[in-house]
Amino acid sequence: MVNIYDSANQLEQDLRSTQEYKDLKTAYDAVKADESAYQQFKEFQKAQIDFQNKQMQGSTKETDLDNIKELGAQVEKVKVIMNLMNKERALAQLIDEINQIMFKPVSELYQG
């Protein structure tokens, strides 16, 4: 009998070995090494989480959206942060592809 959790744990280990993950880690280390960039990044992350929480609660305001856009425009000017975000997108794409593979049996079941 297959233990799906063993497969999931192996996938987690394999993910850490991918170039996409290694690139993300290197980019994150570069952001952490730049104190100003790291502070901006953490502020942007916190603002994103706060905004998402407000969205889920249905309590977003125009000023919330303006604030997140302004912070986004600021971090776009910081090369090491933009590199990190690009590496994060590449890893997210890989995870999305893995997700599609994992849910293939369910998709096929419902399409059949």
Describe the structure.
The chain starts with a helix and ends with a helix. It has six helices and no strands. Helix content is 88%, strand content 0%. The protein is mostly helical.
Give the key terms.
mainly alpha; 112 residues; 0% strand
What's the order of the H and E elements? HHHHHH
DSSP strand content: under 5%
Low-confidence spans: pLDDT under 50, at least 5 residues? none
Count every helix, treating DSSP H or I runs of 4 or more residues as helices: 6
What percent of residues adopt helix (DSSP H or I)? Answer: over 70%
Over all CA atoms, what is the radius of gyration? 18 Å
Task: Please tell me what the overall shape is.
Answer: extended
What is this entry, summarized?
The chain is an all-alpha fold and 112 residues long.
Secondary structure topology:
Blueprint: H1 4-16, H2 19-33, H3 35-57, H4 62-76, H5 79-102, H6 104-111
Helix pairs in contact: 2-5, 3-4
